[in-house]
Amino acid sequence: MENEYELLDSGNGKKLERYGNIVLERPCAQAVWQPQHSNLWETATARFDRVGGHNWEGRGKLPRAWKVEIGGVVMKLSATDFGHIGVFPETLELWKWIRSTLKTGTEKKGRELKFLNLFAYSGGATLAAAQGGAHCCHLDASKGMVEWARENAELNALQEAPIRWIVDDVIKFLRREVKRGNTYDGILLDPPSFGRGKKGELYKIEESLMITLDLVHQVLTADPSFVLLTSHTPGFSPTVLSNLLRQYNTGGTIESGEMLLTGKDDVNDLPNGNWARWINQ
Fold this sequence. Notes:
Blueprint lengths: L4 E7 L2 E6 L2 E6 L18 E4 L5 E3 L8 E5 L2 E5 L14 H18 L4 E5 L5 H8 L3 E6 L2 H13 L7 E5 L2 H11 L5 E4 L4 E3 L5 E3 H14 L7 E6 L6 H11 L4 E9 L8 E10 L2
Parallel strand pairs: 3-4, 8-9, 8-11, 9-10, 11-14
Antiparallel strand pairs: 1-2, 2-3, 4-5, 6-7, 12-13, 14-16, 15-16
């Protein structure tokens, strides 16, 4: 599997990344050190900053959309007004783990496993799970992002894969799933610090996450594989995420760590969020 992503350098509150043949410079508050490879920053195809608003420099040099393979998944990328491009590459190692764990679990249990991806964005983890043989449910409150994820499914020849595409508020959806008796073997959730549901429902992580995790626990199968919780919210460290999972899942094993953007050996790893997972071992 090819990986066309690379962190080229970071520092002075910025990061320099390569996505295929496109090089982007964007803000990154945690990059408080000095750049290691100053000469590379001149190679940026385009730059984004938030000085006085949201500003792209050189956006006209970017294609309207381009595709790259990241973590074994082909993704469509496109520069948005807010500086996002349709993928968070710090999660690619988690995609690989999800794919491998679901494939192994299917072989071990002798049945197809069901995977639920909440706050699912452009679908990298959903498609990795489908590659692992799982039946998937992909949920995001943004219709546009779900449509983007479906485009990514086509790029990976997964348009006919068993994936349910849902546009909905997470808590409302989970409550309906509890009533329906629908259950899942593996669940990923990446809650925002602050967000809005399909109909404007407010989601604040400090108030809503424990409700979400309780509902997640209720829609697990009798013999589940895992619950994986990720966060980009400051203060939600690996220990905090582990403690949250431990409240709702007994037995098994809890692992945790940082999500990292990585490049060559002479480039500093760049932390960008945290993760924790409960594994039913």
